[in-house]
Amino acid sequence: MDDLTPQEWIAEQYQLHKERNLLLKVQVTQQRLQERAAEDAALEGEFNATMEHCKGNKKMLAQAEAEYADAKALRERERQKQDVIDLEWDPDQGVQFEAPMYFTRPQQLLDIFATLEERNLFLIQTSQETEEQLEELKLKLESTKTKMLEETEQLGSQINALKADIAGEEAKAAGLSERKSVNGGHDKEEDHATLLAFLHTRVSEVYERCGIGDDSSSGTLMMLANMEHKIESLLAVLVTMPPDEVERAEKEREKDRRARVRKDKADTQEALRQAKINKSIQLSLAPVVKRTGKPVMARAPPLVTRKREKDVKEERDEDLEDRIEFLSE
Predict the structure, then answer these.
(1) Gap between the Cα atoms of 256 and 247, Å rounded
(2) Calpha distance 169→57 (Å, rounded)
(3) What DSSP line would sit under 148-186, residue for residue?
């Protein structure tokens, strides 16, 4: 019952009891002062009567005054002792105060039990919701861990593939360097440098057109690797799309490509035709030069040394021809 009693009510009862005891002490002190005042008035009246009776006898007057003074001093000492006793007086007489029973009607207990039951139901519901949220977080954590592991493995495999590609390209570069050192000649080196620069420019353009970014400061191999990764991710998304939409999109892209090729071819032919027309116009507008004298005879052409087919095949740079064919498309 004490555990169910509101603590505020118990504190209030202790405060009321403390104020009640303080009021009792004040009442006792006031009553004591009134009694002392009445006693002093009575003794003073007796002293005045004695002084009036002994008015003609100086010896008796002095004796009466001395006795009155001694009685007054003794009375003050007794009153001081009584004040100390009153100050230490305990209205409870050493008995510890206990608050009265808070519950006076059965309905009070029923109301408290109903409130506690509502709180318990709320706590149970909150606990269940917290457990559900905890389970969801655990599932999300496991899913995230699994996804991170898969992505880590995929990135590791991509890194290994890129390292293998880089090693292969480095091997090709070493082969080209060795072949260049064997063939010799500054013209060969300049051709390779020009071709590599042109290849880097074309790859940068394709890299930017693919929407990956404008990162021409990266190496050619790195841009090619990024484009390959982009293509793989797009193919992975393409697998999840409906086949009808994919086929329709492929037909549209093929149609656009053919139209673009036809347009480029037509533009090229138009440019060639326009160049021929301009050349014809220039030739028609040029003044006619009349030749005089004997025409200059051409010198005999130098002898042409034909190389065997085997030597020609050995001097062919297959990688260079593949790059030229790729860039010319």
Answers:
(1) 14
(2) 148
(3) HHHHHHHHHHHHHHHHHHHHHHHHHHHHHHHHHHHH--H
**Would you give the DSSP letter of residue 210?**
T
Contact 61, 54 (CB under 8 A): yes
Domain boundaries, the chain: 7-104
Residue 172 CA to residue 134 CA, distance in Å, equals: 56
User: How far is the C-alpha of 99 from the C-alpha of 304, rounded, in Å?
Assistant: 131
Structure tokens at 200: 């880097």
The residue length of the chain stands at: 329
Tokens of 304: 């042409």
Cα–Cα distance, 151 to 145 (Å, whole number): 10
CA–CA gap between residue 54 and residue 60 (Å, rounded): 6
C-beta of residue 180 within 8 angstroms of C-beta of residue 196: no
The pLDDT tens digits of the residues spanning 286-327 come to 776 676 766 666 666 666 666 555 554 444 555 556 655 555
Q: Give residue-wise pLDDT tens across range 253-296.
A: 888 888 988 998 999 899 898 888 888 888 877 776 676 766 66
pTM here? 0.30
CB of 28 closer than 8 Å to CB of 89: yes
